[in-house]
């Protein structure tokens, strides 16, 4: 009976099925720790060497798929330590001198997230590159710009795509900002109060590539802000991705028909042979909810934890790993999918039903003739009503018809076109081709300098 209970508890508290993913960082941290112990004369050099060699060979075993993770050994730390005992005997017991699993897991998580954060930003860069390439391929394509999902003013498709590039740039900046706080070494905090050996934390930080060390042991073992920050930054990035997904779903519909997604990124319907469904985009939109949920779950898990370490913290991994994987795969597949997108420029243009999107430009025309904007707005809304009642576009009205609404209209109003509307918006950040060209150049430059850094 007791045996069953033991089993029940053991399997409940075990985390190896999830945290085995941290093995590389766990071993890296242990090797640095044992080197530091030897350097400080806390253990003998020869012991440290044996331990480090044992750990390296365990790493090889895991790498080669020859390591057997055991749930009765609870977590990644104990699995590796137990194997070390098997390999080098009782000297293995010296590894855990001046260390606790509490600062060990905090270390592993930070090492893991430092690497993942950099990988995430590279993935976002790849997506930006796909957006830029799509924009460059369709440099002169004009599309209806929307507000309230109503056609508002013409914009360059490239301008629209670069809007997403800007969003993703903020995401990258956000991830780098989190990284600064993730980059603190917690090791040396012990279980909660620090350790009673003359350890060298600066040396550890330097060995493990941390820019600084944590300054309060209680905080260091119980802090998971860096996990939450990564999850929050991921949630925002997924939100951006989901907005892009939504536009792709809309644009690929037969009602819009603005784009066609490569057939490898759509699926057919089992009963309706004519359909090509944008499943990839839909799934990214759907997965965004799960990534939000992961963030919220972690926030809730943390909210009532007293200092310092509490076992609740073990629950940080499953959702974090899920977020890491979901975000990375979504970024990767979007970068690939965008490369297959074909734009139907004709359809975008034809879709600007009549040319009512030029209403603001008509008003601007009158303003240039000295009419106050509010008044000009009133005049144009009357012209709009009239044109619609006649089922005519602005371009189909005669000068005589225009002049019925304002004597300020002259011959040149008849040649007003989409291109004039775009060119007029020649402000920094505007859709004028000159501005968009510059924006493209700036982003190109940034992306290619990053490529070299990698
Ligand atoms: N598996 C634990 C975790 O992920 C490691 C720390 C456990 N510490 C302890 N004293 N039980 O948080």
Brief account:
By secondary structure, this protein is mainly alpha-helical.
List the keywords:
two-stranded parallel ribbon, 454 residues, Ribonucleotide Reductase Protein R1, domain 1, elongated, two-stranded antiparallel sheet, Fumarase C, Chain A, domain 2, 8 strands, binds arginine, single chain, mainly alpha, Fumarase C, Chain B, domain 1
What is the radius of gyration computed over CA atoms, rounded to a whole number of angstroms? 30 Å
Number of domains: 3
Main β sheet profile? 2 strands, antiparallel
**What distance separates the N and C termini?**
58 Å
Bound molecules: arginine
Please list the strands of the largest sheet in the order they lie side by side: 1-2
> Percent range for helical residues?
55-70%
Order of helices and strands: HHHHHHEEHEHEHHEEEHHEHHHHHH
- CATH classification class of the largest domain: Mainly Alpha
CATH superfamily of the largest domain: Fumarase/aspartase (Central domain)
Q: Can you tell me the CATH architecture of the largest domain?
A: Up-down Bundle
**Structural shape:** elongated
* Number of beta strands: 8
- Low-pLDDT runs: none
Mean pLDDT: 96
Structural class: mainly alpha
Number of helices: 18
Beta content comes to: 5-15%
How is the CATH topology of the largest domain named? Answer: Fumarase C, Chain A, domain 2
């Amino acid at each position: 009976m007791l045996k069953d209970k033991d089993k029940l508890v053991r399997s409940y508290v075990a985390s190896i099925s999830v945290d085995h993913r941290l093995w590389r960082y766990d071993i890296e941290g242990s090797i640095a720790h044992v080197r530091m112990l030897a350097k400080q004369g806390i253990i003998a050099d020869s012991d440290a060497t044996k331990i480090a060699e044992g750990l390296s060979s365990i790493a090889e075993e895991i790498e080669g798929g020859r390591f057997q993770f055991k749930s009765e050994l609870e977590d990644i730390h104990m699995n590796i330590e137990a194997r070390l005992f098997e390999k080098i005997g009782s000297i293995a017991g010296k590894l855990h001198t001046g260390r606790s699993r509490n600062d060990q897991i905090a270390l592993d998580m930070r090492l893991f997230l430092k690497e993942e954060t950099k990988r995430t930003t590279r993935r976002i860069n790849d997506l930006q590159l796909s957006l830029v390439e799509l924009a460059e391929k369709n440099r002169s394509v004009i599309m209806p710009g929307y507000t309230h999902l109503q056609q508002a003013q013409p914009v360059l498709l490239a301008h629209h795509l670069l809007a997403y590039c800007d969003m993703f740039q903020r995401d990258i900046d956000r991830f780098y900002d989190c990284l600064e706080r993730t980059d603190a070494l917690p090791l040396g905090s012990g279980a909660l109060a620090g350790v009673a050996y003359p350890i060298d934390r600066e040396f550890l930080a330097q060995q493990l590539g941390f820019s600084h060390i944590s300054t309060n042991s209680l905080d260091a073992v119980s802090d998971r802000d860096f996990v939450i920050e990564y999850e929050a930054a991921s949630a925002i990035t997924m939100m951006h991705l989901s907005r892009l997904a939504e536009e792709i779903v809309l644009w690929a519909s037969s009602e819009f028909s603005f784009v066609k997604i490569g057939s490898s990124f759509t699926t057919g319907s089992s009963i309706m042979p004519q359909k090509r469904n944008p499943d990839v985009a839909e799934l990214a939109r759907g997965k965004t909810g799960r990534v939000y949920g992961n963030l919220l779950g972690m926030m809730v898990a943390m909210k009532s934890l007293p200092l310092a370490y509490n076992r609740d913290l073990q629950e940080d991994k499953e959702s974090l790993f899920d977020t890491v994987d979901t975000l990375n795969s979504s970024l990767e597949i979007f970068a690939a999918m965008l490369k297959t997108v074909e734009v139907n420029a004709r359809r975008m243009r034809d879709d600007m039903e009549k040319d009512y999107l030029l209403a603001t430009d008509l008003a601007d025309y009158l303003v240039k003739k000295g009419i106050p904007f509010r008044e000009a707005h009133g005049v144009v809304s009357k012209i709009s009503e009239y044109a619609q009642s006649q089922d005519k576009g602005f371009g189909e009205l005669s000068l005589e018809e225009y002049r019925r609404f304002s004597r300020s209209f002259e011959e040149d109003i008849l040649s007003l076109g989409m291109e004039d509307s775009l060119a007029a918006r020649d402000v920094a950040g505007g859709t004028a081709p000159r501005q968009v060209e510059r924006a493209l150049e700036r982003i190109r430059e940034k992306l290619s300098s990053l490529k070299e850094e990698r």
